Amino acid sequence: xxxxxxxxxxxxxxxxxxxxxxxxxxxxxxxxxxxxxxxxxxxxxxxxxxxxxxxxxxxxxxxxxxxxxxxxxxxxxxxxxxxxxxxxxxxxxxxxxxxxxxxxxxxxxxxxxxxxxxxxxxxxxxxxxxxxxxxxxxxxxxxxxxxxxxxxxxxxxxxxxxxxxxxxxxxxxxxxxxxxxxxxxxxxxx
Length: 190
Hints:
The chain is built from 4 helices and 9 strands; from the N terminus they run βαββαββαββαββ. The chain is an alpha+beta fold. The protein folds into 2 domains: 22-100, Alpha-Beta Plaits, CATH 3.30.70.260; 112-182, Alpha-Beta Plaits (2-Layer Sandwich). Strands 5, 6, 7, 8 and 9 form a 5-stranded antiparallel beta sheet that branches. Keywords: Transferase. It is an enzyme of class 2 (transferase).
């Protein structure tokens, strides 16, 4: 009997391990000037990375600084490269991976909140059920008529996702979400 030929023991024959894709929340402190957001976002799109959430606002008026909060997904190695490249853009002052930060209490992960406005149409039992569920989620009614409600809801993105999935069969019409606003835990500034 002939034995099958075995390849030599070499690193070239070992299948490379695939890095898992992970979600990261990046906080980017930039000069508040025209074109900066386009340059930062261009860094993502130029490398083929999707932005799951984007929030931008001026945070320090006197210093003309804005904070860009980006939630994106990728492998650890690629996200570290992206952070490094973002750090090299001239109007970028600081890039912090909030996902990796630990607070004074030892808890990891950022404090994340998102605002959603959700329109639900329905009558009868579905209307009553929508109001009951909104109460459980602490959603506030900000507009209503005899055939619809508009709810305002804040919380972690997963909470909003859950609220939307429950409201869908009850008559979900439309959703508007702000994107994630996030800060690192603990007393230290970004």
